[in-house]
Write a structure and sequence with these properties.
The chain has 463 residues and is of the alpha+beta class. It has three domains: 276 residues, BirA Bifunctional Protein, domain 2 (2-Layer Sandwich), CATH 3.30.930; 56 residues, Herpes Virus-1 (2-Layer Sandwich); 94 residues, Anticodon-binding domain (Rossmann fold, 3-Layer(aba) Sandwich), CATH 3.40.50.800. Helices cover 32% and strands 27% of the residues. It has a seven-stranded mixed sheet. Strands 20-19-21-22-23 form a five-stranded mixed sheet, with helices on both faces. Strand 19, helix 11 and strand 20 form a beta-alpha-beta unit. The radius of gyration is 26 Å and the shape is globular. The two termini are 40 Å apart. The chain binds adenosine-5'-triphosphate.
């Protein structure tokens, strides 16, 4: 293993271990030995994830006048997937090793050998795809594998009861398009936004939460006139750039990969993949696609419904074209964890130095914004610190911790990325003030208790 690869895998091990130790992300069903590639967001992970989703909704739905929300079913009429093309096209090319029984994505195996895979025409296995990279066994020929999870609705397990777990949230925005325009007074152009789970029976899940079979997406379908698509594509590209900054990802770790015409999905005329330098390599974080009027036309054809928009002033009818920015929630959380992770040399109480691990989350995304840490468990301090914590809970997410030495408690808060720690000491009983420590600078300030809320509010403003 090269030095770089070793450092990268060490970084992932550190992150996975911190995520488990501190309650961000646990292996799912762990007491039963786990369940491959499934993960649970623990008490801190759910806060971080919800903060990301809230920030997204605030920015792109509440923060704009041209967006409405939707929360659609995961199970939809199976005709949706015939119309969208998922039944026919949502496949990955798969090969199996006849000896070790491992499965691989044929395109990934070819890409690893520097060969540009031609997904559309991959029927015959190329000669580079004959031998298993793990055990040297013989590989099967390439098969198309549909990624949708199939299930049965109701008690009969026959073809008439087949349904699919949605592989993306997007289709509901097209299927509900008519209901949305009939029930709301949207102007034009406008968008529909949705956050929700999607399911894909990935052949090669892995890299922690990067590729899983159950994941969450935040998607927007933005409806425009055909002649305006370039303008709005640029608009959304810019919005996505600003979003990435708000997550605290460094510009030099983010790449905008223009997909070549021959590699575009069947519905797209332009796609940009937004990629991030994950510790295991550069890979897709988000996507932005111009989907033309493909989806609305397909659903109009398959449902027999009129899915045109009528201009209220001119009565002109037309099928809108669509710009689709899409964000993976889990990949957002992973990228934020990667970007936030820092190891620094910090002085100890006895004048030595030690390594402090600090998660430098953007302040508004931190699972806890404030920690209240009374120096001792004695009742007289409790009388001050507990009402203070309760008052702060009305404005911030607060963690209360009165066990262990203050040094260890600071380290713990650094590891979970709490921006401000408040310590209440015996002097607080006299001066009605607390010490507030900044996570990043470790500087401490003495602040009067009745000024604490405003002091902290000012610190969070604009951050
Ligand atoms: P990939 O090429 O990595 O398989 P994709 O291009 O198929 O991804 P899209 O269909 O564009 O992905 O899905 C939109 C977003 O949903 C992705 O940018 C990603 O953030 C997220 N996503 C897609 N598949 C997964 C998965 N299996 N696990 C976690 N997140 C995913």
């Amino acid at each position: 293993m090269s030095k770089k690869a070793k450092a990268e895998s060490e970084m992932m091990l550190k992150l996975v271990s911190l995520a488990k130790r501190r309650g961000f992300i646990f292996p799912s069903s762990e007491i039963y030995g786990g369940f491959a590639n499934t993960w649970d967001y623990g008490p801190l992970g759910v806060e971080l994830k919800n903060n990301i989703k809230r920030m997204w909704w605030q920015r792109f739905v509440h923060g704009r006048g041209d967006m409405v929300g939707l929360d659609a079913s995961i199970l939809m009429n199976p005709k949706v997937w015939a119309a969208s093309g998922h039944l026919a096209n949502f496949t990955d090319p798969l090969v199996d090793c006849k000896k070790c029984k491992k499965r691989f994505r044929a395109d990934h195996l070819l890409a690893a050998q520097g060969i540009k895979p031609d997904l559309g025409t991959m029927k015959e296995s190329p000669k580079e795809l004959k031998i298993c990279p793990e055990c040297g066994g013989e590989l099967t020929s390439v098969r198309k594998f549909n990624l949708m999870f199939k299930t049965f609705v109701g008690p009969l397990e026959d073809e008439s009861a087949v349904a699919y777990l949605r592989p993306e949230t997007a289709q509901a925005m097209f299927v509900d398009f008519k209901n949305v325009i009939d029930s709301t007074r949207t102007g034009f152009p406008f968008g529909i936004a949705q956050v929700g789970k999607a399911f894909r029976n990935e052949i090669t899940p892995g890299n922690f939460t990067f590729r899983t079979r159950e994941f969450e997406q935040m998607e927007i379908e933005y409806f425009v006139r055909e002649q305006d698509w370039q303008k709005y594509f640029e608009h959304w590209l810019n919005e996505m750039k600003e979003w990435v900054e708000a997550l605290g990802l460094k510009a030099e770790d983010v790449f905008y990969h223009e997909i070549e015409a021959e590699d575009l999905a069947h519905y797209s005329k332009r796609t940009v993949d937004i990629e991030f330098n994950f510790p295991f390599g550069r890979d897709e974080l988000y996507g932005l696609a111009y989907r033309t009027d493909y989806d609305l036309n397909q659903h109009a054809k398959f449902s027999g419904q009129d899915l045109q928009y009528t201009d209220p002033e001119t009565n002109e009818k037309f099928v809108p074209h669509v710009i689709e920015p899409t964000w993976g929630v889990d990949r957002s959380v992973l990228a934020v964890l990667v970007a936030a992770y820092h190891e620094e040399a910090a002085p100890t109480a006895d004048g030595k130095t030690e390594t402090r691990i600090v998660m430098k989350f953007p302040k508004k995304l931190a699972p806890y914004q404030v920690a209240v840490l009374p120096l001792s468990k004695k009742d007289e301090l409790k009388e001050l610190s507990q009402p203070l914590a309760q008052a702060l809970r009305q404005h911030f997410s607060v963690h209360y911790d009165e066990t262990q030495s203050i040094g260890r408690r600071y380290r713990r808060q650094d590891e979970i990325g709490t921006p401000y720690c408040l310590t209440i000491d015996f002097e607080s009983l006299n001066d009605q003030a607390v010490t507030i420590r900044d996570r990043d600078t470790m500087k401490q300030e003495r602040v009067k208790i009745d000024e604490v809320v405003n002091y902290l509010k000012a610190k969070f403003d604009g951050n």
